[in-house]
Amino acid sequence: MLTPSSLRPAVVLLVAPLGLIAQTPTAPGVIQLEAVEVTAQKRVQAVQDVPIAITAYSGAFLESAGIERYKDLAPLVPGVFIQEQSPNNPGINIRGVTSDSTDPRAEMRVSIFQDGVSINRATGSVTELFDLERIEVLKGPQGTLFGRGAEVGAISIIQRKPTAATESGLTTGFGNYGAFTASGFANSPIGGGTFLGRFAFSYSQRDGIVDNLADGSDLNGRDTLALRPSLRWLPSERTTVDLIFNYQRDNPPGTAFKSGVIPTRNGDTDPFLAADLNRGRDLSIDRTVWGGTAIVAHEINDAWSLTATTGVREYDSIEQFDADGSRLYLLELADDSQGKHFSQEVRLNFDTGGRFTGFVGASYVSEDSTQRVPLYTDERQVWPFLSGEFRNGLLAAGLPAAFVNTAVPAMNPFVAQDRLPATFAAFAAIPSLSSLALLANAPLKAYHTEEYINSADKQTTDLFADGTYAITDRFELTAGVRVSFEEQTSGYEARRAPVASTLGFLLGAAPNFAFVPTNGNREASLSDTSWVGRLIGRYEVSPQFSVYAGVARGRLPAAIIIDSTTVTQADEEIIWNYEVGIKGGTKDRRYDYSASVFRYDYSNFQTAVRDPNNAARFIVVSAGNATGLGAEAAVRGRLNDIVSLFSTYGYTDATFDDTDDNGQPQRYAGSSFRLTAEHTFAFGTTLSWSSAANGTFTLTPVYQYKSEHFFDDDNTRFGGTLRQDGYGVVNLQAGWRSKTGRWEISAFADNLFDKDYLVDAGNFGANYGIPTFIRGEPLLFGGSASVKF
Fold first, then answer.
1. What local confidence, expressed as pLDDT, does residue 436 receive?
2. pTM of the model
């Protein structure tokens, strides 16, 4: 399906039932929702029997909706928001807590698994969603099930495996902004049926939605190729071996960071008009990710089964971006990241069909990753911006305003200055500042470059156990724990610039401009033992209605902070989550619903801030304690054989506490978490007409709403302008499927009324008082055709 939009997924909720995984055919003439099964707890269960806030989708559901990217899932899952600035930099927000750091030394708060293999590292985690068996989205701490990285939730992606059928299919589509997509698969037995093979691919290309005045190029586009060959070996009736290889290459144009302070050559700072960025077509992303997975599943006997999962994964990505968002050559940056990942998990499951079922296991994960961040700048253009800060510093020191304004005059940033002001000589009269007189008439560099490198080497061994015991026929208790033994070594290196900076004295980084040289790689290591766990009770009021209540503990490891002279540590982040929920439906299975209320308490919430000793760098610090309160609900139903409907609602109030454990005021007291909307809502309906002669026609309108939210943990920054007001978007989809199911044609319009909205604001430029803004996708429309063989 052709899906250039990030807002499209909501349309599919009525095309197929919410959470559809196992489809149980209904009798002719019977109007009801299909049965739903999931494997979130490492065993097959009806979704209504799982005491977790979980939403799941079948591969058929995803294909009918054209869901191809993570952010397409967000409107379907209350309490979830997914932002993709680029394939290199996703932000995943679950219940108000965002996981989006590209620093390899940082841990993620949301665990992403692909066929049981962790792909948590942000730079390597974005994968196309094609030819899938299902997706499961779990909310709340899920460390027992998905590792300690699942501090606030988990996304589990299960890809389709080869089957005994001989079949294939192809889909192609077109749309505005030059969009083109193609995807397909081929499946066949090999060698008499002992081996089964499958190959699937996906390609998506679209021109950028933002024009760049600098050279006529465009920004915020797509260009992604993904390939997946897989092989299934059936050596015996009790043993299955799956080998899966994934490859993805992303090479889209760069991200349009547009300055909200420095106007374009057209004189505007409107984020919804053309940008004016240096380097033009050199602003781009070149990202390659590949991974291999081996899964061995063996039934030892009727009670015990063994699953062993091995994963190898690598990523190599470089993103060039204009961090100041303007035509000035101020903050030109790149993110050049590489990483290698190996994991091994062995799990034993026990299930006799009696009162107890559960599993025990162990895993080992090894990561080796680096992030190189080059900076390019023209000192002649950056001086006017830094001089204002320098002038304010002198005034704060008590120097007379007349003297300071004479020595450091205001300059026009659009006119290149060759040298520092001659009036710097005036500082000779002040002993403490007399050395600055030597900079009078000092030449400013037209081109300056330097860089820093972050690195991480991590090994983690986990032991875990989880089980459910039915105390009565209606009441069951689930408990689980995971113990982690962690070894991490973090590194930081800032290399000396080839030619010294003239302006380095302003930021205290001389002889560099921004990054104080470290004279080699500085490393620090940390060993730790930790635990996460859960305890949940579930009571079945009736076969159609159940309630559950639980408590879970999540954790983010301590962060090592290294600069040119010191090594410090941000304490581990702990979350306690308390939740009560209900799940139910009507006896005739025409309607079902779920709802939950939750509260979580954070201690040592880790956030990224500007390094006070290095203005060009972010560091992780503890913002103190925080509290989250929320409620979520979803309902779906089939009114008759023509009309289906769905609605989801999420409420999240996640804010930093006023005081810390010692009663002292906190850094962001009262501010809500980044990207967190208090209210989210979606409603849609599908109209479906079937004819024995003409096939099936569908029409699906959907409305989705997201209330006001901020893009920075400090909601007061820049006067609170780094925010998006509440907005709603309408999507529309129409389709036709032949009576045999062989042919399908569809058309869509996302953001039907071309609503303007932002996906991010502030960003790196905000550190220098020049925040940048990234617009959301405008009206996107297109169509596609599919055929199966």
1. 81
2. 0.90
